[in-house]
């Protein structure tokens, strides 16, 4: 039986990589019955709204979505639709597994970043302060972390560790400087860890030191749990350890819905050229299969991606010549053959 889900193609390279994902879901028997809806810059141009009500209504119904990247204007213009979607469905956990597929500087990276997805400096409470004639003399942002949300995300990370047989959760913070904003996160991590004593160990790391250690020796890390902005930055960093943004999937998980996407954005610099690497969104579809209990299909998909790459079919970001759609066809072929 097919599982109802919402599909958002997104902006920039979105439509190209979504097509490649649909091509690899086909030989798995099209596990999802997708309803297509729009969001992002494309939706703004077509419907006058970057997040149309029909899109929200669809996700409310399916509780499950696969989403291509959405363009957010920098500096001014509309607020990030990604952030609005996370808020609309209380998708509090952003889970970003990072595993080596193509050995590069490291051959065995296997870690997961669990990012708090709703609070911190992402709450968008910003304003300018005028000084004399300059209305924009000072930029101010207010961030907050509620104790309850800190507890919820840390518990999510520990439960995730138990479920996936992982041994250590590292809480990444900056409580030496932001003693309150990230101190509350660290306090809750210490409190939650007690309940997992003997099963999963708690480790504590300050974010800047963590960044350095990740680059030097990622094998020191297993599950990382951190606040919103640090998680955003570190998850791009860890993507760089496994071949770049083309390999990093992300799941936005809430109690009532889940949205799966690539960590990367709409890559306007290569959009429309058939150059984009669709692996990140394919892996996101893999996480979506895991989420609905289709573990076998998820495994088949991941194995086919690895086989395709080690067989030499690669997109330009990792030095290959395959187009986005060629790569999709090759993975589909590998699934059929596998
Ligand atoms: P980006 O991730 O789109 O691109 C950064 C660099 O990585 C570019 O050189 C791009 O060509 C390359 N890249 C990204 N994905 C790739 C792929 N699959 N294959 C090959 N190369 C790839 O980040 P950027 O340029 O900062 O943002 C562009 C837009 O995307 C912005 O409007 C931003 O707000 C939005 N964005 C959306 C996200 C989402 O929908 N979840 C996440 C991050 C950014
Ligand atoms: Mg990001």
Automatic annotation (TrEMBL):
Keyword Oxidoreductase: yes
GO molecular function, one term: isocitrate dehydrogenase (NAD+) activity
Tagged with keyword Cell membrane: no
Keywords: Oxidoreductase
An individual GO BP term: tricarboxylic acid cycle
Residues covered by the Isopropylmalate dehydrogenase-like domain: 2-331
Coiled coil: none
A Pfam family it matches: Iso_dh
InterPro entries: IsoCit/isopropylmalate_DH_CS (IPR019818), IsoPropMal-DH-like_dom (IPR024084)
Family membership noted in the UniProt record: Belongs to the isocitrate and isopropylmalate dehydrogenases family.
Protein's name according to its UniProt entry: Isocitrate/isopropylmalate dehydrogenase family protein
Organism: Roseospira marina
């Amino acid at each position: 039986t097919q599982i109802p889900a919402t599909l958002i193609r997104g902006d920039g390279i979105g439509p190209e990589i979504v097509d490649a994902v649909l091509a690899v879901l086909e030989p798995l028997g099209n596990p999802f019955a997708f309803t297509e809806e729009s969001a992002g810059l494309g939706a703004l141009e077509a419907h006058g709204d970057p997040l149309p009500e029909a899109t929200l209504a669809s996700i409310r119904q399916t509780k499950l979505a696969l989403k291509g990247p959405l363009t957010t204007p920098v500096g001014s213009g509309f607020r990030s639709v990604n952030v609005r979607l996370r808020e609309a469905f209380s998708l509090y956990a952003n889970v970003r597994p990072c595993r080596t597929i193509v050995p590069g500087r490291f051959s065995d990276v296997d870690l997961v970043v669990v990012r708090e997805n709703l609070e911190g400096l992402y709450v968008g409470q910003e304003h300018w302060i005028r000084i004399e004639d300059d209305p924009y003399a000072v930029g101010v942002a207010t961030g907050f972390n509620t104790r309850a949300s800190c507890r919820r995300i840390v518990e999510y990370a520990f439960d995730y560790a138990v479920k996936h047989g992982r041994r250590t959760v590292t809480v990444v913070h900056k409580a030496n400087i932001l003693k309150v904003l990230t101190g509350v996160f660290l306090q809750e991590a210490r409190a939650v860890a007690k309940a997992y004593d003997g099963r999963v160990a708690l480790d504590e790391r300050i974010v800047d030191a963590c960044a350095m250690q990740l680059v030097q020796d990622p094998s020191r890390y297993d599950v990382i749990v951190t606040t919103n902005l640090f998680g955003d930055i570190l998850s791009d960093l860890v993507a760089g350890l496994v071949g770049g943004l083309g390999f990093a999937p992300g799941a936005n998980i809430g109690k009532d819905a889940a949205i799966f996407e690539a960590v990367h954005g709409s890559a306007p610099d290569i959009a429309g050229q058939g150059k984009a690497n669709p692996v990140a969104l394919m892996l996101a579809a893999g996480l979506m299969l895991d989420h609905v209990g289709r573990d076998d299909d998820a495994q088949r998909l991941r194995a086919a991606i690895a086989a395709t790459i080690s067989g030499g079919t690669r997109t330009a970001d990792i030095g290959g010549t395959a187009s986005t759609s060629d790569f999709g066809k090759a993975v589909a072929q590998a699934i059929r053959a596998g």
